[in-house]
Amino acid sequence: MKKDRAEILSDALPYIQQYAGKTVVVKYGGNAMTNASLKQAVMSDIVLLSLVGIRIVLVHGGGPEINAMLGKVGKESRFVNGLRYTDKETMDIVQMVLCGKVNKDLVDLLHLHKGKAVGLCGLDGHLIEAEQKDDSLGLVGEITAVNPQIIHDVLDKGYIPVISTVASGANGEVYNINADTAAARIAAEVKAANLILMTDIVGLLEDKDDENTLIYSVGVSEVPYLKKQGIVRGGMIPKIDCCVEAVRRGVPKANIIDGRIPHSILIELLTNEGAGTMIVN
Known about the structure:
This protein has helices at about 1-20, 30-35, 35-50, 65-70, 90-110, 150-155, 180-190, 225-230, 235-250, 265-270, and strands at about 25-30, 55-60, 80, 85, 115-120, 130, 140-145, 160-165, 165-170, 175, 195-200, 215-220, 255-260, 275-280. With about 280 residues, it is an alpha/beta fold.
């Protein structure tokens, strides 16, 4: 048993060397964010990666918490094409829950695991700037710029930036930004070596009903064909599109991994088996 553990650590060395000093953006959400034991595993993984010299940027969502708070104030959650309709009252709650409770809870949890973290939102340093995406969505934003200096400053001081995805408008508006979309743009702007999207699925499946048909690697040029064939469909479309966007903007690879598996981030980054589907140029 001790020998097996030693071999695991030894096998991880080349991957640690590969990523040491480089930036990896992790979009954290789904079941890994609501399941208590998975949450602890993710936080310990993030701290471990940071301690071995990998510059981790943690971008998070918070849909369940937002839904719960909207329910408490008697406001119904409404979605248009998979995006939350965000009127002014909803935006106030999104900002309060994401930038306040969820963000600071994650910072505190990282500190409990002996990590160093700083909570940020897209308003800090005008990190994320946006304009209205569509009238039918209300205050849902389309990113116009990402200004990553504050991320670099936090990383250079040895802290893990934990980012909630609201954005500044040109005239003082505050916009709700899809966390996958924000993570992809942030990954490009900080010149990340990898973008990791944590999801509640195994990855991209050739047969949506058979987890044994996982597609391990997809080239950007293959995506239109996979959409045409109906392999990339439904909720997978925006996730794949975010990965494609990141890769086209210079991120070497983007991974959709199964956040329901404990330590899936470590499996993806520090082993040769991976934990989902990788999108490359």
